[in-house]
Write a structure and sequence with these properties.
Layout lengths: L1 E3 L4 E6 L8 E6 L5 E6 L6 E5 L16 E3 L4 E5 L4 E6 L4 E7 L17 E8 L5 E10 L4 E12 L4 E9 L12
Antiparallel strand pairs: 1-2, 2-3, 4-5, 6-7, 7-8, 8-9, 10-11, 11-12, 12-13
């Protein structure tokens, strides 16, 4: 059994049925309160969620943006908050991690909820020379959101994308599907 507490600790309880004083293992992964804990269906992994918007102890990526890159034959995936990762599925390795937002905010205040950037949309030109990204910053507790549409050009000499244009609030609503 696993529990989380308000100080950010995760407690794993061992042999709690047969003992008067169960043995426990304590992990302190979270800076703020632990909101939820659960084991994977196989019991091999423990997942926990808190309020500080961090990942810890192991690599964990749940991609939602998938765009094929014709130059590298890799796939763009959203990575940690505000980043895109170019992944090579044939080698099962990362080609590079790209900072789209260039700013992520963390707080040590317990009652402050802040939003980090989320890369919602990605489009690539047929040659892979141009990349368009749409990032959204949301802070529902403050009642605002910010949106940036960015255009990046591939620099072959440096082997990375360079920011070319940044358009703040290109639409007052969401952008369903950019295309280049």
């Amino acid at each position: 059994m696993a529990t989380g507490d308000i100080s950010g600790r995760i407690l794993i309880w061992h042999d709690f049925v047969n003992r008067v004083r169960p043995v426990k293992t304590v992990y302190h992964w979270h800076k703020l309160a632990v909101n939820s804990v659960c084991f994977s269906s196989e019991g091999e992994y423990l997942y926990s969620g808190g309020s500080e918007n961090t990942e810890s102890k192991k690599e964990s990526v749940l991609p939602t943006v998938l765009v094929f890159d014709p130059r590298s034959h890799g796939t763009f995936l959203n990575s940690q908050a505000g980043f895109l990762q170019l992944y090579d599925p044939q080698r099962a390795s990362m080609i590079f991690n790209m900072d789209i937002a260039n700013r992520n905010i963390l707080t040590d205040e317990r009652n402050t909820v802040i939003g980090n950037a989320e890369v919602l949309r990605v489009a690539l030109s047929p040659t892979g020379e141009w990349l368009a990204t749409l990032e959204v910053w949301s802070n529902m507790s403050a009642g605002y959101h910010d949106m940036n549409l960015k255009f990046w050009r591939y620099d072959a000499e440096r082997a990375n994308y360079e920011l070319n244009t940044d358009v703040t609030m290109p639409h007052h609503d969401r952008v369903p599907s950019p295309a280049l």
